[in-house]
Design goal:
There is one protein chain. By secondary structure, the protein is of the alpha/beta class. It is 49% helix and 15% strand. The protein has three domains: 2-156, no CATH class; 163-278, Rossmann fold (3-Layer(aba) Sandwich); 293-630, 3-Layer(aba) Sandwich (Rossmann fold), CATH 3.40.50.720. The strands form six sheets. Strands 12-11-10-13-14-15-20-24-23 form a nine-stranded mixed β-sheet, sandwiched between helices.
């Protein structure tokens, strides 16, 4: 009957889409309070009659009750609370408001109506009855509204599409998450989940605590309680359980969900999805790296900052983070029109007060680059523009040299000409003992930038710019990287292609890499090559299997893994960037300074100019030979250029 009433008068639509207006709550509370006073008066007249309690005086008492109720509820703002989210902690406001109301009524009776209107015992009984009845009715109204709201939500969720979900953990964060989702149309919180039986018979927030110990436990919960999903309160919680609970869930066909991290909160508002499917990036990430945000903010606040490659994976994330640090002006420099348009729209939406300028240009064009420097006079430059895909650059070495070597030279020279305080270059782990053109071109760029900084320090070249280089490995989810490619292949039904069963890589999240880049720029005194602690390497075949399992498929059965062979210039494993043998410590435990050979600036400049000349002539063989001559540790692997390693390289 109640549900038919709700459906007929469309109460559900009203309650599900908005809160009850505060003025309505105040009016309802006042009516309830006056009603309690009226009932108390009736009881007094019936049980303890008094000739002094005449009808006019009773009306005056009720009028005073209405006035003092409004005053009391206004003082304690009880009508401002959202009733559907009320807790026991909010009851004290109602108690205090009722006490204030009866205190004012007592003063009104004593001072205005006279002490003789009621005998002392009768008056005490009346005020006590009025207070208890008012409090009881106020709580009853709220309880009724909560029950009504629950009925509305149950009817809205009656389609059976909501996932029966267990929240992993029993901490404050997990309980708050369960409360937040208790009326979600997508998730029906069935209880909490912990490892071990310690809380087996407990209930929290009126929901049972379930436990698991092995795969069979999860299978039992699926069969007995109809569990569809397990929800983690954070990616870190899921990461801690990646080899146990996450595996059990994927094997049992239970969906693994996660609440968004702070990175997915924009301007204090959660993104549209409160809960999302777990991603492989959540499991590969590491505990959050602590950085000195105050120092970074102080270093960039009010400054004009230019970011090259601003529309790429690293460059765009640098722009996002810099936008939140109070920079004076942010200049975005990139030659990719559509990605630049997208990052422009994003910054306009997320940071409406940010002064920024998108500039379409190419670091290989000195005139366009010079125009940007002359127009905006940047004080700090982050150089992220580069070609990065190993096989593609192995097939197009001259373009790699023009973008990565000549482009970096152009940026560095303009930093010097326009008195830029600091230039931060983004390099790669593939520059360590390079086996491909891409890595060698980035190493050549490092050589030029570092030698220029050393020449300035020694007084051989005039200028004041500090040059900083940062090296790190693969970033999770960057454009064209392995994880987005695997995800697309899984969506198409496979196969997932891996180049070699034993190939491994280091991974770092894009936000983490950018935070470390800014931290390195803050602690640098100039001319260092900083390397980051990349954690443990990941076997790509294992990564592919885990991604297939997270998608709900069985690797090797429903989706195959195909091995295609190493690509030109590709290593089985990347070099470990930061060991105590090849680096020196810094003030940050995750950042070290690489110990590398120093080059003479004028020799490096001559090599870069010759490389650019050969590359513009598209003389592939001569370009690669000169790279090998300048960088003796560059030994090609699985590449057509291996023949140059077997014959002496002569200067061109």
């Amino acid at each position: 009957m109640i549900e038919r009433f709700l459906a007929r008068f469309r109460v559900g639509e009203y309650f599900s889409s908005r809160y009850v207006p505060s003025w309505s709550v105040l009016a309802l509370d006042t009516v309830v309070s006056v009603g309690a006073s009226f009932f108390a008066l009736l009881v007094l007249r019936a049980l303890l009659p008094s000739p002094m309690l005449t009808a006019p005086r009773a009306v005056a008492l009720l009028a005073a009750s209405a006035l003092f109720s409004l005053v009391s509820f206004g003082v304690f703002r009880t009508f401002r609370s959202v009733i559907r989210h009320s807790t026991l902690r909010g009851v004290w406001k109602l108690v205090a408001a009722v006490l204030l109301k009866d205190s004012l009524l007592y003063l009104f009776v004593s001072l205005l109506l006279g002490d003789g209107i009621l005998p002392p015992k009768t008056a005490a009984a009346g005020f006590l009855l009025d207070g208890l009845l008012t409090l009881f009715l106020l709580l009853a109204v709220r309880l009724t509204m909560l029950v009504l709201y629950d009925l509305v939500q149950r009817r809205a969720d009656g389609g059976g599409n909501a996932l029966r979900t267990l929240v992993y953990g029993t901490g404050d964060k997990e309980i708050a998450l369960a409360v937040r989702l208790q009326h979600s149309p997508h998730y029906r919180i069935a209880g909490f989940l912990t490892y071990g039986r310690q809380l087996k018979r407990y209930t929290i927030a009126e929901r049972p605590v379930c436990y698991f110990e092995n795969r069979a436990s999860i299978a039992y919960l699926v069969g007995k309680r109809g569990i569809d999903a397990v929800l983690f309160s954070s990616p870190a919680a899921a990461r801690d359980e990646r080899e146990r609970l996450v595996k059990y869930c994927t094997e049992a066909g239970v969906r693994v969900l996660v609440a968004p991290p702070i990175d997915e909160v924009t301007d204090g508002r959660l993104m549209k999805q409160v809960v999302r499917e777990i991603r492989i990036e959540d499991l590969l990430g590491r505990p959050e790296i602590r950085i000195s945000l105050d120092e970074i903010r102080e270093g960039v606040r009010g400054r004009t900052i230019l970011v090259t490659g601003a529309a790429g994976s690293i460059g765009s994330e640098l722009c996002r983070q810099l936008a939140g640090f109070g920079v004076g002006r942010l200049v975005l420099f990139d030659n990719a029109e559509t990605p630049m348009h997208n990052i422009r729209l994003e910054l306009e939406e997320r940071h409406p007060g940010l002064t920024f300028t998108p500039v379409i240009g190419d670091v290989r064009m000195p005139e366009r680059l010079n125009h940007a420097f002359a127009t905006y006079r940047p004080q700090i430059v982050f150089h992220a523009a580069a070609y990065k895909h190993v096989p593609l650059m192995e097939e197009n070495p001259c373009e790699a040299v023009l973008a990565n070597v000549a482009g970096t030279r152009n940026v560095a020279d303009l930093c010097l000409r326009y008195g830029v305080e600091k230039m931060v270059m983004i390099s790669t782990d593939k520059a360590v003992n390079p086996t491909n053109v891409m890595g060698a071109s980035k190493r050549m760029a490092e050589i030029y930038v570092q030698s220029l900084g050393q020449a300035i320090r020694r007084g051989r070249v005039g200028g004041c710019t500090q040059f900083v280089t940062t090296r790190f490995g693969n970033v999770l989810g960057s454009n064209g990287s392995v994880i987005p490619r695997f995800r697309e292949q899984i969506e198409r039904g496979g196969p997932v292609t891996v180049t070699h069963p034993a190939i491994t890589r280091f991974f770092m999240t894009i936000p983490e890499a950018c935070r470390l880049v800014m931290e390195a720029a803050t602690i640098s005194s100039g001319n260092e090559i900083f390397v980051f602690d990349m954690g443990e390497s990941v076997r790509i075949a294992d990564l592919a299997r885990r991604m297939i399992e997270l998608a709900g498929f069985r690797p090797g059965e429903e989706i195959q893994i195909a091995y295609t062979g190493l690509r030109p210039g590709e290593k089985l494993y990347e070099e470990v960037l930061s060991t105590r043998e090849n680096t020196k410590p810094t003030t940050h435990e995750k950042i070290r300074v690489a110990c590398v050979r120093e080059y003479d600036y004028f020799e490096a400049r001559a090599a870069v100019e010759e490389l650019e000349r050969l590359a513009r002539r598209v003389d592939v063989a001569a370009t690669v030979r000169l790279l090998k001559l300048t960088i003796p540790e560059y030994k090609s692997r699985n590449s057509a250029f291996e023949e140059f390693d077997r014959t002496p390289v002569a200067a061109q």
